[in-house]
Write a structure and sequence with these properties.
With 204 residues, the chain is of the alpha+beta class. The chain has 2 domains: 58 residues, no CATH class; 136 residues, Nuclear Transport Factor 2, Chain: A, CATH 3.10.450. It is built from 5 helices and 7 strands, in the order αββααααβββββ. The strands form 2 sheets. Strands 3, 4, 5, 6 and 7 form a 5-stranded antiparallel sheet that branches. Strand 3 and strand 4 form a beta hairpin. Helix 2 runs antiparallel to helix 3. The longest helix is centred in the N-terminal third of the chain and has 42 residues. It is rod-shaped. This is Conjugal transfer protein TraK. InterPro entries: Conjug_transposon_TraK. Keywords: Membrane, Transmembrane, Transmembrane helix.
Length: 204
């Protein structure tokens, strides 16, 4: 009888010991898991100093903002490439900035326009060239874009409005001061740049 009681107590002690070990292991694993989650959440928190006062800001998933950055890059390139003034240095500066955002297709189009005398006409006629973006369409699967807008050429006596429809592709690259969005436009071409209207200015 005594032996049976001893064996029973040994079994009970073994069960209790194994249960305590399993519970301890569970607590340790759960602690590591929650600590990892807390570290991950803390990495998404950024403190910004506003006049010496720390303000908590939350990071968002980069992939969620990427389509917005693609459109911003496409709009920025077109604005730089097509915003021109009757000043050679201004034109060269804008074109140079725009070429950081695109592959050789941008330089080819610039060379093509220069050889046609487009930039010389802008300077000679004291014209201002600007664009208005209507919409930008993205195909995320093929990384292709289409740009729809209008180009306005303002001269002393008239305002010419032209359709501006271009398309190309985009790819991710390393961010840099000259390309802060980290997006490179590729195989870009002008599809339609036909004249829509030519309005004479009123002269007094």
């Amino acid at each position: 009888m005594l032996i049976k009681n001893i064996e029973q107590r040994i079994k009970i002690n073994k069960v209790v010991s194994l249960g305590a070990i399993a519970f301890a292991v569970f607590i340790i694993i759960a602690g590591f898991f929650f600590a990892y989650r807390m570290i991950q959440d803390s990495r998404k928190s950024i403190y910004i100093l506003d006049n010496g006062v720390p303000i908590l800001a939350k990071q968002t998933d980069v992939l969620l903002n990427r389509p917005v950055e693609y459109k911003a890059q496409i709009e920025l390139f077109h604005r730089l490439f097509f915003t021109l003034a009757p000043d050679d240095s201004y034109i060269k500066e804008n074109i140079q900035k725009s070429l950081y955002l695109i592959d050789d297709s941008g330089k080819k189009e610039y060379t093509n326009l220069r050889e046609k005398g487009f930039y010389n006409q802008i300077v000679a006629s004291s014209s201002m060239v600007s664009i208005h973006t209507d919409s930008i369409s993205l195909n995320m699967e093929n990384k292709k874009f289409q740009y729809f807008g209008k180009q306005m050429i303002t001269r002393k006596s008239s305002v010419i409005t032209r359709k501006l429809f271009t398309e190309g592709f985009f790819d991710d690259i390393i961010r840099s001061p000259n390309n802060p969005h980290g997006v490179l436009l590729k195989n870009w071409r002008i599809i339609n740049n036909e004249e829509l209207s030519n309005q004479n200015k009123n002269s007094y």
